[in-house]
Amino acid sequence: MDHIRKLLPFVKPYWRRALVALTLLTSLVFLDLSIPRLIERLIDQGILQNNQPVVIQTALLMLGISVLSTVIAIGNNNLSVQVGESVARDLRDALFLKIQTYSFGNLDRQNTGQLMVRLTSDTSALQRLVQISLRIGTRAPFLMIGSLILMINTDATLALTMLPLLLVTLVIIVFFIIKMEPLFRTVQQKLDKLNTVLQENVAGVRLVKSFVRNDFEGERFEAANENFTNHSVKVMQFMSSMSPALTVCVNIGMVIVIWAGGLQSIRGELSVGQIVAFTNYLLTTMTPLTMMTMLSNVWANGIASAKRVDEILDTIPEVQDAAGALTLPDQAQARIVFENVAFSYNGHNDEEVLENINLTAEPGETVALLGATGAGKSTLVNLVPRFYDVSAGRILIDGIDVRQITQDSLLAQIGIVPQESVLFSGTVRDNIRYGRPEASEEEVIAAAKAAQAHDFIMELSQGYDAYVEQRGTNFSGGQKQRLAIARALLTQPRILILDDSTSSVDVETETKIQDALEERMQRHTSFVVAQRISTDLKADKIVVIDEGRIVAHGTHQELMQTSPIYQEIYDSQLGNGVRLEGAAASEGSDRA
Alpha carbon of 104 to those of 354, 382, 385, 586: distances in Å? Predict the structure, then answer.
């Protein structure tokens, strides 16, 4: 219940509509309770007394109450739907915005499938919980209490006879509610796994086809689907057994009323109308219990989903602004210093990815990071924009620890081209000016030209208005990388991070990009991560990283004389004609 209570603030903005819905629901209870009493009057004072005016009068009154009940029920339903849908909308917004605040470390521990289920299935379960609560939440207990009072008023002895049965019925309902909540939570977890497999396969369908793994992935999805189905069936079977159990209780109650009430009627202690009224009150008492069958299912599902939603909302981002954090000036010099920096993804010092990193990038300087795959190059540049916080040491920008700078002002000064170029559905123009929506057409074209993207954009049928499919699937890897570079350049950052951003373009295009960037880089402090040594030759400083440590640094000429590792990398890539082979391979990847 604590998890449900935490979600009440989402209902608070709509409390007026919720209050009106509950008021309508309460008035509906009084109208429902009046019907059995009118039936008693119809039989005892009308039919048995051959009093036609009473029959007509009572019948018309019952008809009027039915019409009024219908109108009230429609009003309650409309308000309940409005509140439920509004709460679900606000909850989805809150979850989405919360996920946007996550640091990379938080996202590493949450897969996409789980987050999608939280935003869709779990919010839908909470939406149903709000709607059902406003539609029958007060009706069920009020009907039961009101019916019990009127049953006692009709015949106290007969009512007390029914009390044990009602208690048994309540015990059955509580038992089902307690048992169903963990079952629903398990089903949602199975749905997480199903969505994860689905998301992975949709995103990697080309890879699946290229490795002819259709059958394997089909079996993997079928296993997850079967697992989800089996657990869903178990829950539904368990839920379906609740209604027959309650029906048995209702039927037993009817037998008791007819048997005990009939004996009292024979002795003249109870009228026929009172027996019929008592029977109706019994049904009215049991009806809420049947309603609670549905309500308990929804509540059990809602409680399970509320726990999962709270996990998202309660997650504390690992990277946050410090109290009194400073704003990095727009005209920052961007002198970056790494002092004894160490980092590990899980926080354990015995599994450090980076160790004892000491490095200085002067304003306007280009620092190239070179090393084998997994050496820690991308991890190092991810620490500058605080995608992760260092485990030890510190990183300074213009003498200020990045942990003392507001994230927004820090990221506003950094342009990043990640390893995987991500494009969004929309136009080419919108993708280039994603970081600066207000940029002029001239600025967009200038950035595209610098990234060597202008020519292929103009070859598209609609030029800069050409549509980009989801994740940029209608562009080659090299084209996506050039658009990503243009997007970063358009923000006019003081710090530029190129993380293997030209790996999919040919050497000739890469050279043109470097020439275009050379003039711009005088205004940036730049970090360039590349696998190809040809990318790093013009850098002011080349840093060689091996197993998370800096093993050499200097200019190309200095490293050729002092670093065996650098010499080995240089010879393997640019010696003995390997350079030509590498260029041909790169051209092939750009055309793909």
Answer: 17, 9, 11, 30
Q: Do 296 and 365 lie in a common domain?
A: no
115, 171: one domain: yes
Structure tokens at 318: 């690992």
Split into its structural domains, the chain has a count of: 2
**C-alpha to C-alpha distance for 387 and 470, rounded to whole angstroms:** 25
Asked if 262 and 385 sit in the same domain, the reply is no
CB-based contacts of 21, cutoff 8 Å, min separation 6:
75, 76, 79, 80, 83, 134, 135
Q: Give the separation between CA 55 and CA 46, rounded to whole angstroms.
A: 5
Instruction: Give the position of tokens 């709607």.
Output: 131
Distance CA 167, CA 179 (A): 18
Q: Are 305 and 442 found together in one domain?
A: no
The stretches in the chain having pLDDT less than 70 are 1-3, 113, 138, 154-155, 158-159, 162, 181, 202-207, 209-210, 254, 257, 261, 264-265, 268-274, 277-278, 281-282, 284-294, 347-350, 519-522, 535, 575-592
Residue 10 near residue 84 (C-beta atoms within 8 A): no
**Neighbouring C-beta atoms of residue 255, cutoff 10 Å:** 10
| CA end-to-end span of the chain | 55
Residue 351 per-residue DSSP state = G
Contacts 24+ apart (CB under 8 A), 215-221: 221/194, 221/197
pLDDT at 578: 40
Domain hosting 26: range is 2-314
Residue 319 domain flag = no
Q: Does residue 188 lie in a domain region?
A: yes
pLDDT digits (tens, 9 = 90+) for 4-40: 778 888 988 999 999 999 888 888 888 887 877 787 7
Q: Do β-strands 525-529 and 495-499 pair in parallel, antiparallel, or remain unpaired?
A: parallel
461 Cβ contact list (under 8 Å, min separation 6): none
Listed residue (257, 265, 303) closest to 284, CA to CA? 257
Q: How far apart are CA 507 and CA 535, in angstroms?
A: 9
Pairing between β-strand 525-529 and β-strand 336-343 as defined by DSSP bridges: unpaired
The answer as to whether 329 is a domain residue is: no
